[in-house]
Q: What sequence folds into this?
């Protein structure tokens, strides 16, 4: 995709509109998180208008890039972006932020509004689910079509995301597998709910991610040009990328910027008015979208339509000669091949450990279902989760046996990510007692009705 040069005046005006729209939503709801959307608007703007391949008219297009708001509490940002770029989310929906029955829930809920790729809110989950999506797309790219599944997974994440253990588990595996289709922007604002991150988080995040095998870049979060270039560079990295954006929670709110007070409560009428003045806007008006900003942001609609059309043409052309693509299409439509349920049977009273029976069934299923993939948290031989006639999923190969390492929590989140990729059916096994370590993603899988075994 060729990109026009960044028009800084146009970009600034759009970014400030996004910030104030989100702050207005929180103010009207009398609850929510204004500071992080105000801070993250530059990154979201660049992703949605310049870097991401997406089609607002068809949020489920299989060839799209994915955007995950891992710090789900910043949901007002996501809803503002979806509205402005032409997804089916109205200004009225934004005004009903956090109201019962509204698609604009306090935290993004998968299936409640178009363009929400996964449910986030429990910190650490979004960035971890993204690793599963990246693995799933790598699998489809190598096994089905290099051209059709070369999507990138983008995420915005916060200090809390990177403090959570599951994020470390999955980042370690992502680096090991060299998942170059991951681009994460870390909002390094050094503020959490209790105050400064120096209270509990003083490690060198950059060094940690470098040691995992990630590409790491540093930028100033308000420097649109640098951020734009960093994203472009990250997209082309053969390794997963972390862009550390030194940014400022509540940017533009004169008394609350860079303080925990901007995190989880409305700015308050006076402070919000002062922020509007800071951005040269009328403090008396709310939910203002200047016409030129609206038109500029809506260009995403025509662009998305053209991108999907091009992809669809490539898809149709390939379908004629690519058997794997035909069977993926069937799987993505939720159809199972004939005879898939010709499974081993076990007589009542037969002496057989349940894990042995499970292994036999799994292998019988794997013969019929080419998009069934998974593994165990280092207990494959004990849990009988190994698909016998298959290789391993490694940095260089895409066998269907995934080695999660001794990382149960990561396994659960990665399975959710795999299950978000059309056609794939992920499985994971461990002993019941260790499954306690993966309860949060199991709960999320149930809430999102994802097909995980
Ligand atoms: C697993 C989990 N634990 C606790 C919370 C509650 N919580 C919401 S935001 C937050 C931390 C806020 O700090 P940060 O992640 O840096 O976000 P920012 O203040 O920059 O928006 C916490 C503890 C949560 N959402 N998820």
A:
């Amino acid at each position: 995709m060729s990109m026009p040069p960044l028009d800084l005046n146009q970009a600034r005006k759009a970014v400030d509109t996004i910030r104030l729209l989100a702050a207005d939503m929180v103010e009207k709801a009398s609850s929510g998180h204004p500071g992080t959307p105000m801070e993250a608007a530059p990154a979201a703007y660049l992703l949605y208008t310049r870097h991401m391949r997406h089609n607002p008219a068809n949020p489920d297009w299989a060839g799209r890039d994915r955007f995950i708001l891992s710090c789900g509490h910043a949901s007002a940002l996501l809803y503002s972006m979806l509205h402005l770029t032409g997804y089916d989310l109205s200004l009225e929906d934004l005004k009903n932020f956090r109201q019962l029955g509204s698609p604009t829930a306090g935290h993004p809920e998968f299936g409640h509004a178009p363009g929400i790729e996964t449910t986030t809110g429990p910190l650490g989950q979004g960035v971890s689910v993204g690793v599963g999506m990246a693995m799933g797309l790598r699998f489809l790219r190598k096994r089905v079509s290099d051209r059709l599944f070369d999507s990138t997974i983008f995420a915005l994440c916060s200090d809390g995301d990177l403090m959570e253990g599951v994020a470390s588990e999955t980042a370690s595996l992502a680096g090991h597998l060299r998942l170059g289709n991951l681009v994460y922007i870390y909002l390094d604002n050094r503020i959490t709910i209790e105050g400064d991150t120096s209270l509990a988080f003083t490690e060198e995040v950059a060094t940690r991610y470098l040691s995992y095998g990630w590409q790491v870049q540093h930028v100033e979060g308000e420097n649109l040009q640098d951020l734009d270039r960093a994203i472009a560079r990250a997209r082309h990295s053969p390794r997963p990328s972390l862009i550390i954006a030194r940014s400022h929670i509540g940017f533009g709110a004169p008394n609350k910027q860079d303080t925990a007070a901007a995190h989880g409560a409305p700015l308050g009428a006076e402070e919000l008015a002062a922020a509007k003045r800071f951005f040269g806007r009328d403090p008396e008006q709310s939910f203002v979208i200047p016409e030129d900003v609206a038109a500029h942001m809506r260009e995403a609609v025509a662009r998305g339509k053209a991108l999907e059309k091009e992809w669809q043409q490539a898809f149709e052309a390939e379908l004629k000669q690519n058997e794997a693509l035909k069977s993926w299409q069937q799987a993505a439509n939720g159809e199972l091949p004939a005879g898939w349920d010709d499974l081993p049977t076990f007589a009542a009273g037969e002496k057989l450990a349940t894990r042995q029976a499970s292994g036999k069934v799994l292998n019988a299923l794997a013969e019929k279902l080419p998009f069934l993939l998974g593994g165990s948290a280092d207990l494959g031989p004990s849990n009988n989760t190994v698909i016998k006639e298959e290789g391993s999923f490694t940095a260089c190969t895409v066998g269907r046996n995934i080695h999660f390492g001794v990382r149960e929590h990561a396994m659960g989140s990665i399975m959710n990510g795999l299950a978000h990729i059309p056609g794939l059916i992920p499985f994971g096994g461990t002993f019941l007692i260790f499954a306690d370590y993966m309860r949060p993603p199991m709960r999320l899988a149930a809430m999102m009705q994802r097909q995980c075994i």
Notes: Residues 8-309 form a domain with the Rossmann fold fold (CATH 3.40.50.970). The chain has 17 helices and eleven strands. Residues 36, 71, 73, 121-123, 158-160, 164, 187, 189, 191-193, 249, 263 surround thiamine diphosphate (CB under 6 Å).
